[in-house]
Amino acid sequence: MKKIKYAHKNTLCEYDLSLDFFKELGIKINDVVPLRKVFLLYTDEGNKILKKVNYDIDRINIISDSLDYIKKKYNNVIAFDKLKNSLNYIQWKGNLYVVMDLLQGREATFSNPIEIELCAENLAMLHNASNGLKEYLEKKYSKNMMDISLKDKFTMSYDNLCNLKEMVSKYKYKNQFDTLFMENVDKYLDEIVNVNNKLEKSSYISLRNMEDKISICHNDLAYHNFLINDRDVNILDFDFMTIDLRVIDIADFILKSIKNVAFDINKMILEINSYEKINKLSLEEKEVLGILIEFPRDFYSIVDDYYNKGKSWDYDVFLNRLLGKLDNESFRYEFLETYNKMLNKDVSQNK
């Protein structure tokens, strides 16, 4: 229990919760309670979230401007508060902090089909509300706001795995994680080549030039970033937001919800159908969706985090995660086979 309770203690210890800090913040604090990587502030102005961010002021402003833009049409996102300094952040002893309102509700349950449906519908509404955001941000910041291409991401992933393979091959002693990595890496390198080839043959490039296919992408649509209160859903934590194809966000949402339930194709169908109540997806987008799921994301992310110190987990946690992901692969392959049959059927019916 202690490991779970204090899993983020190193992050929380980086906060400076001195009286001088709270005075500079300009909020009268009655109580402070840790929650994951943030602190809950109980104040005279309502309950708040204090969060130390690991990005620069320019990105804080881009996130804040994006959420303000979206809230004009879709109010169910949690934006940064304006503070005593008239900014949406405070800089204190070399760190940047933001404050947000704490809303009533609980984390979504992805095993509940009703809540899955609600989350998918709200994701579609979020994407709708961000129509025109790319142009708005590019005009304000005088730079291209589109995220780097999937081709570049796939290529970087391939190169990273190759470098890791070369590094681990030179280890005099290999632990079980190293051995599993070396036994499987070539297969996944082949898979990345395959998805890159499919991407080049797809309509991906033309989709990137269609403004109605571009939206804000949250990029971390896990259950804990959907806050549910009755049938109201709020979407939290836009730290990793980008501007890109909406289908990239849909793929992230689907993968977050199905990878721990044996890649349940029926859950994916429910999610797409629920999303399409608000936003219809084209066959070309669904083709790219399949490519995104075919990319070996689980294997890549766990070995990248392990060797490049992306997470401060114990060795046993990394090993068990890798074993679990490898055991899950047969379900992913079965899922992809079924999904591709469904897609081919849709293509045939639309000819």
UniProtKB/TrEMBL annotation:
Keyword terms of this UniProt record: Capsid protein, Virion
Q: Where is the signal peptide?
A: none
What Gene3D superfamilies would the database entry show? 3.90.1200.10, Phosphorylase Kinase, domain 1 (3.30.200.20)
Show the PROSITE patterns listed in the entry: PROTEIN_KINASE_DOM
Stored Pfam families: Choline_kinase (PF01633)
- Which top-level group of life is the source organism from? Bacteria
Protein kinase domain residues:
1-351
InterPro entries reported for this sequence: CotS-like, Kinase-like_dom_sf, Prot_kinase_dom, Spore_coat_CotS
- Kindly give the NCBIfam families that the UniProt entry links to this protein: spore_CotS
Listed name of the protein = Spore coat protein CotS
